[in-house]
Amino acid sequence: MYVARASGLHQLHPLTKVLTALCLLIAGLTLPGNWTSYCITLLIVFPLSAWGKVFPNLLHIVWIVSLPFAISVLLIQSLFWGAGTPIFEFWLFAPKVEGARYALISLGKIILVMSSFLLFSLTTRPDALMIALKQAGMPSSIAYIIVTTLQIVPSFQRKGATILDAQRSRGLETEGNLWVRARALVPIVLPLALGSLMEVEERAIAIEARAFNSHKAETSLIEIPDTQFQKNFRTVTLVAMPLLMIFGILWRL
Amino acid sequence: MFEKIKKDFTTKTLVLIPIAIAINIVVGELVARLKLPIYLDSIGTVLVGAIAGPWAGALTGGLANLIWGLFTPTSAPFFYVAAVIGFMAGLAGKYGAFEGETPYWVSVLVGAVFVFSLTLFVLAFINVNVDETGYATFPSMGELFSRYLLLFIVAILLGGAIGYFLLQKGGYAGLWGLITGVIAAIISAPTAAYVFGGVTGAGTDLLVAAFRASGGGILSSVLAQGSVSDPFDKMLSFMVVWLILKALPARFKAR
Amino acid sequence: MAFINIQNLTYQYPTSKAPVLKNINLQIEQGEFVAIVGPNGAGKSTLCYALSGFVPHFFKGELSGSIEVAGRQSSQSTLSEWVLNVGLAFQNPFNQISGAKYTVFEEVAFGLENMGVPRTEMQVRVEAALQLTGIADLAQRSPYSLSGGQQQRVALTSILVMRPKLLVLDEPTSQLDPIGAREVFNTIRNMAKDGTTIVLVEHKVEWIANFADRVVALKAGQVLLEGKPSEALTSDLLAEQGFGLSRYTSTAREAKKQGLWKKDTLPVTLDEAVEGFKQ
Questions:
Q1: Beta-carbon-side half-sphere exposure of residue C85 (alpha carbons within 13 Å)
Q2: What number of other Cβ atoms are within 10 A of residue B140's Cβ?
């Protein structure tokens, strides 16, 4: 997911970026006003991503992922909105203005969730994030899980494809009616899961042999640059997030 | 409490979790490739719960969605649902749901009761009466039974058949999967309705559309959709894990 | 007092029906290079796990007798303390890549990070270790982009950078070509010279003859014989049992029956065989 670029955003401390993204997300979802999420996406998230030189990448992914949502939410909510003002009437269909409005508001939230998440994941190396989180007190086991998952998924995808091909060449049918396709699952899933479970023991031994469970304070090879300004900024976001949520709830009451 | 949580996390468990998340992803993709109308994207999570306990299962589920959120950001907000699924699988494991075999009649009973309640739920939903003031009343059970007697009989027979042919000797695991699915449907509905306007962009949206068309509100349509697809999906996931554990040599089950 | 002292070691895995190691007694001196040979299922890997603390700390099971390394009893130590003195590398390189690191340099540093070695010292040690095993050119590559042989060298480097007093190696060159294997054996031999004790399980008997100080042959969980490589590997006992034999030893043994091999001692390596047949 990470896109390497020489930008100011890339050089920020990973936690600064995570907290900024979270803060923007919460602001967009809790602040009053139906179109707040659009405002935050357009006025803050997009310009920030342009500063990080990843605006085209971000827009591309947002477009691809949100398109099916957009179609689905617009159709369902406008066509099946109980009582309301019809936009037009055609045979059985009478999409309602209120439904379309609701759909657009929902779409704004979806786009905000995606773009603020992408703002940080496109500009932050996962390993740098992990080191930063560890330094902030997150257990190293969590960091291990996250980075290792990101690294082994491609090899598992290859493994899955290999098993699928092997079973097909032995005559397993993977095309046809629902029942045929459903029955194809077990001979593929079982070898994949069993094979991987057998690896667990050796992998555990390998990392234990490298002092993974040592009780000494860990050190880190890579240094994450940080500044006092960013530290202060992060404190501000940490205070702002609960305040935003409380404000959002009170406003609605 | 804290000591108990810590006991769930041996190095083996820690190594198992990334592998389990990878299994979630790969099997999820495979199911999509086979164009099956289910997700089956929590097999790894259920596996960790079954092998390493509820807390490890919960961590696996939560992290799986957050990590996968790096690629498809829409899965991240549901991380808490996945965590509950992992936790439930852990409880199921604690109570022996993945060990041994159950007689066929248990599986038939589980399937029949489930499809029966599902039918009842959906019919009650479709037949909800809304008067002029917008006040909704559900039809009475007796009314439904007399109107749809044949449908209920078909549902029970179908459920029994599902139990017999799909669950086979894993009736207990299937039961836990169904319960987990119901809980997952209930707790994911608010997020699905509020953040995503009730849609996922996937095939299950047709169900949401159907419920909206029959007069359901946004939240209740999402809930109804979830109650139809989630229990079935989780039942199959728990079943597959039961099969995996049955085939796994004893040596690898020990923590 | 020997550096390694194993006394009356008997061990059974939780799920195995009979003991895998039976009454093993073994003494090894500091800086000694000991090779273990034996047929499949003889208990070689289990012995490696016992020396490196994983038996019984990781595998549980029933253990009697004692394992002592560098004056410490395994039973009175925890696994996380034990691995600081005893390093273990095994056959399958893919499972030894931690997965937690993006480059070979960081992968090799993983153990040092866990040990709490300061950053500047870490950099020096990792660079030295990469030089030692000849993979400095791979430093910035992803461990997952490497060949099996390269991964095997990374796995070995990742252990020896931790500077264990005892290095336990279970077929560490299985994926390497002969040139690569020779380089690795040279590295190990030099480490033994500098005082690191080496216990190695290896199928390729010629390498043992060239590099090891002593051979221990295991069969069915028991020590069958031990001795200098040139003697043990050419013994009649191993010939009867049919394992731990190089093709040159077998050939010369046959040749001797027909009077074609004139020397009293049998060869293990190609060089010895060539020299012997010249006579």
A1: 18
A2: 10
Closest in C80, C105, C113 to A218, CB measured: C113
Q: How close C53 comes to chain B (CA, Å)?
A: 15
With beta carbons under 8 A apart, name residues in chain C contacting B16.
none
Give the confidence band of A147 by pLDDT, cuts at 50, 70, 90: confident
- In three-state form (DSSP H/G/I as H, E/B as E, the rest C), the secondary structure along chain C is CCCEEEEEEEEECCCCCCCCEEEEEEEECCCCEEEEECCCCCCHHHHHHHHCCHHHHCCCCEEEEEEEECCEEHHHCCHHHHHHHEEEECCCCHHHCCCCCCCHHHHHHHHHHHHCCCHHHHHHHHHHHHHHCCCHHHCCCCHHHCCHHHHHHHHHHHHHCCCCCEEEEECCCCCCCHHHHHHHHHHHHHHHHCCCEEEEECCCHHHHHHHCCEEEEEECCEEEEEECHHHHCCCHHHHHHCCCCCHHHHHHHHHHHCCCCCCCCCCCCHHHHHHHHHC
Q: Which residues of B touch C13 (CB under 8 A)?
A: 251
Query: Are C216 and C35 spatial neighbours (Cβ–Cβ below 8 Å)?
Result: yes
Reported as a single tens digit per residue, the pLDDT across B203-250 is: 677 777 777 777 777 777 787 777 778 888 898 899 999 999 988 887
> For A208, which of C83, C95, C126 is closest by C-beta distance?
C83
Residue C251 lies in a domain: no
Specify the higher pLDDT residue, A87 or A24. A24
Tell whether C254 is covered by a domain. Answer: no
- Residue C111's domain comprises 4-227
Subunits with 3+ C-beta pairs closer than 8 A to B: A, C
Which tokens belong to B96? 């022996």
Q: What ipTM was estimated for this complex? A: 0.93
Q: What pLDDT does C27 receive?
A: 96
Contact check, Cβ <8 Å, B36/A199: no
CB of B248 less than 8 A from some CB of A: yes
Q: Looking at residue B255, what is its pLDDT?
A: 46
Which B residues in the span 169-228 are in contact with A, Cβ-Cβ below 8 Å?
195-202, 205, 208-209, 212-213, 215, 218
Q: Does B18 touch chain C (CB under 8 A)?
A: yes
Q: How many domains does chain C have?
A: 1
Encode pLDDT of A174-214 as tens digits: 888 878 888 888 889 999 999 899 889 999 999 999 999 88
Instruction: List the single residue in A121, A186, A194 with the smallest CB-CB distance to B70.
Output: A121
Q: Tell me how far apart the alpha carbons of residues A50 and B170 are, in angstroms, rounded to a whole number.
A: 54
Q: Is the peptide bond before C56 cis (omega within 30 degrees of 0)?
A: yes
- C208 within some domain: yes
Q: Which of C82, C102, C114 would best serve as a mutation to test chain A binding (most A beta carbons within 10 A)?
A: C114
Q: Is the pTM of this model over 0.90?
A: no
CATH number, residue C100: 3.40.50.300
Q: Residue C245: inside a domain, yes or no?
A: no
Token pair belonging to B198: 């009730």
What confidence score (pLDDT) does residue A7 get? 92
Class of domain B2-102+169-253: mainly alpha
C41 inside 8 A of chain A by CB: no
Q: How far apart are CA C155 and CA C104, in angstroms?
A: 10
